[in-house]
Write a structure and sequence with these properties.
This protein is an alpha/beta fold. The protein has helices spanning 19-32, 49-60, 80-85, 89-94, 135-143, 174-183; strands spanning 4-9, 36-40, 66-69, 102-104, 108-113, 150-155, 188-191, 198-202, 211-215, 231-237, 241-250, 255-267, 270-274. It has a single domain, classed as 4-Layer Sandwich (Purple Acid Phosphatase, chain A, domain 2). The structure holds fe (ii) ion (2 copies). One fe (ii) ion binds next to loops. GO terms for molecular function: hydrolase activity; metal ion binding.
Length: 276
Amino acid sequence: MARTTLYHISDLHFGRERPPLVQALIEEINARGPELVAVSGDLTQSARRREFAATRDFLAQLAPPVLVVPGNHDVPDWDLIRRLLRPWRRYGRYITDDLYPRYSSPTLAVLGLNSARRWSPHTDWSQGRLSGYQMPEVERFFTGAEPTAARVVVVHHPFIAHELVLGRGVIGRKEMALQCFGQNQVDLMLSGHLHIHHSETMAARAGERALVAAQAGTTFSDRFKAGYPNSFNVIELDRDHIRIRIRCWSEEAGGFSDCERLDYRRSAAGWESEAA
Ligand SMILES: [Fe+2]
Ligand SMILES: [Fe+2]
């Protein structure tokens, strides 16, 4: 089965970007030439025009195709009227007005879903969720995917809780979405938001088919957390094997290099972690 390479970058937070890292990433992506670059949201720090323009200019410098979903920082939070009435106007003007971005080839079928919301019943509006109305699109897209293609979903909010942030930020309606992804034989979910790189296998319920959930850190913003340097994921995959290479920024070396490697293999029960 043909293997392919996917770059997963996230939480760019233009407005708080670190220019040497932006330049290093552009050079690496264009030299390596992956099949696709997936961007899992928080393109900007505050959804300002100049931040979206900087994101657009950055994306235009990448040679491979790019698939982008928005994050909670891409909705204007300083202007309640704009937030409630036209939450995606700037995103649409500068990036894309497609909130179901798709990429399809014989090796890769990738669907992006928007998990950021203009309003939330919780006091914390940075929380995200998926909704029932988005699930038929998942079914439609993967029903039409090539059988040889690895199946990937990109969404900003994470499916994995993390002890460092006490479970904060985990996507709403997670079980509903996992069940739908499982039924549609999704292999891999990509997300961001926590600025912590991490990955593990998970299923909607015990005994159901597991898939791989991978989170990327913040790729080049200065909003990284202690112990989690700026990073991105290089994913080499086919329908039987997924390898995630995490590339971290080293302040001493002034460059990105491999800092962790995770391998997963598909079995009858779904995806399982493989000892490195
Ligand atoms: Fe973020
Ligand atoms: Fe976020």
